[in-house]
Structure formats: C-alpha cells, structure tokens
Amino acid sequence: MKPSVEIEYCPGCRWLLRAAWTAQELLTTFEQELGAVTLRPAEEGGRFQVSIDGQTVWDRKAEGRFPEMKELKQRIRDQIAPERDLGHSDAPATEGNDAG
Question: Which residues face 37 on adjacent strands?
Fold first, then answer.
C-alpha cells in the first residue's frame, strides 16, 4: 500500500490555498509513490502540519515558519523513496551571484 500524506491547515488563517498548492506540488512530484494527499481543516488555530501515514514531517509551529517546497519534498522523499533523485530540488543553494 502506498503512503498517504495529510496536510492539516488553519481555515481561519485562510491557508486552504497554501495547503492545496502544497498538495498539487506533492502529487505532481510523487505521483507514482503516493497513494493519496488529503487536506484537513485543523481545529487548532495557526496549524499547518504535513504528515505521512500519521508521522509528522513538517509542523509550522515547531519549525517557526512554513516549509520551502524544496525542503518539504526532500523530507517526504527521504521517507517514501530515499533513492529518488529530485533533480533541481536536490541541488545545493548557491550563495550570492558570481555573474559580475
């Protein structure tokens, strides 16, 4: 059985669009590896949490911010398909701009 991702978001904070965009990105990237991506309105205010089969991968309150899509995809990949190359999402960030 393929793993399922749940994105729990704060409806009062108007984070449905962010949650839906996150779901779209994950389904596009992991279309073969994921069985489902579910959006769930949180009962607790300020919540934005991403879980795989009940195991938290990202919690906005614990991390102090929303995830960058690159890092969220890396964390999910590490759980469901560690051998998978994410292409440009795996490239290390470059500092500054060397183009004079």
Answer: 5
Q: Which two tokens stand for residue 88?
A: 């440009």
Residue 97 lies in a domain: no
Model confidence pLDDT, tens digit, residues 41-98: 999 999 999 999 999 999 999 999 999 999 999 999 999 998 888 886 665 544 444 4
Buried b (16+ CB within 10 A) or exposed e, 18-42: ebeebbeebeebbeeebeebeeeeb
Euclidean distance between CA atoms 42 and 97, whole angstroms = 41
User: Domain tally for the chain?
Assistant: 1
**Alpha carbon of 78 to those of 11, 45, 74, 75: distances in Å?**
29, 29, 6, 5
Question: Residue 90's pLDDT is what?
Answer: 67
